[in-house]
């Protein structure tokens, strides 16, 4: 049966479905609400994200059949802790979800059902959570006002951000499209292109990417500037101002008679009619999400304006790994206090910076053979230190991280001195080449085996060149044993994260690889 996305905790009056709410809630009342939160996470790391939610929030998670999403219930007062999760990219409050939604065969009937669905959904409480979330964001921005990042820098950060193995333009959306649309199913018919914004009243159509939402797939924005009906869910900060919205539709499956554009257009038109809002796809107040994966339908309201993975990196390179994916890789190797963790091919430093931030009781060493990459990583570390210094009453003296330029095949580290190696290896696309990887990978694995502690050492390595890696690993079987493999989607590329465990055998200094 469909489950409401937000309900009140025991002892409180049930919220009426259909949206006949009583307007804005008081802060105290809002904190008592229990919300079902949806989160997009790096594909393949759903279990890792669920473990983090359980550990930090004490909530069990449901992993969606649509890869790259998890759902969990928390009190609305826990929203600040939810935003501090390290493994999630985007957050939304669930209005309602349908595990087995039966779509009509004809396009017209199916779209009409989606339109009719709008009036039946319990909008009031999710909008209260959205309002509470907005008030928390405003408090945060007021606290940070003295050290707020200049607009030009912010635009540069958003414009330069590139994901591993993806194109510079629209990379975040491309990667999350692949993840959240379950692109691992080649037979599925999915809408992954940016949809057009349609304004139901005047028929105008316009296509534009919203810089504040870098990782949406199918976007049809509906929205308008009137007040809500009967005071339903009208956010207090909007007051008499026009409330604007857009609808973003994400669809995956090969048995739908409609496209994501059509679903978002008609669903958005019904939302517009129900709330008397108007369309604005860039300067919107509310983003309504319509996620359709085969017969699973989830309606939600976005709680994040930009992906939470944009937290550490200010200087980007051609292949900058997302911080959320870096966190998942680090968590996979289970760092313990006093562990020495090395990233021998650090690029812009996403992995070691995430590691030093989340595991400060470990010591982190990063290096790269490219002097420009080392410079970018050093700049990112400096940016992080400045951010820490700007925090009120901060007593942080630094972070346990050093960076150096070195040769991956001849590391200036003693034999058997490293506990953990975590690295994003060259895919052979934007950096290096597939041909060079055939020599590079076995040499890397041999040198990593030399510096890693025999018996207890482990390595977590990400690569898209799986054939070459498998061949190299088969030649290095005497020093590395493959443990776990996590299949991930990186910028639309099907990649793998390998957990390797160091054997007790001594690694040779030189060896004929092939």
Question: What does this entry look like structurally?
Answer:
- GO terms for molecular function: RNA binding; tRNA (guanine) methyltransferase activity.
- It is found in: Cytoplasm.
- Belongs to the methyltransferase superfamily.
- This is THUM3 protein.
- InterPro entries: RlmKL-like_Mtase, RlmKL-like_Mtase_CS, SAM-dependent_MTases_sf, THUMP_dom.
- The protein has helices at about 25-30, 45-55, 80-85, 105-120, 125-145, 150-160, 170-180, 260-275, 325-330, 350-360, 370-390, 435-450, 465-475, and strands at about 5, 5-10, 35-40, 60-65, 70-75, 90-100, 190, 195-200, 205, 220, 225, 245-250, 275-280, 285-295, 295-300, 340-345, 365-370, 400-405, 420-425, 460-465, 480-490, 495-500.
- Among the domains are: about 30-135 and about 245-310, VC0802-like (2-Layer Sandwich); about 325-500, Rossmann fold (3-Layer(aba) Sandwich).
- Residues about 1-25, about 145-240 and about 510-514 have low confidence and may be disordered.
- Strands 1, 2, 3, 4, 5, 6, 7, 10, 11, 12, 13, 14 and 15 form a 13-stranded mixed β-sheet that branches. A 7-stranded mixed β-sheet has the order 18-17-16-19-20-22-21, with helices on both faces.
- It has 13 helices and 22 strands.
- The N and C termini lie far apart (about 60 Å).
- The radius of gyration is 24 Å and the shape is elongated.
- It has about 525 residues and is of the alpha+beta class.
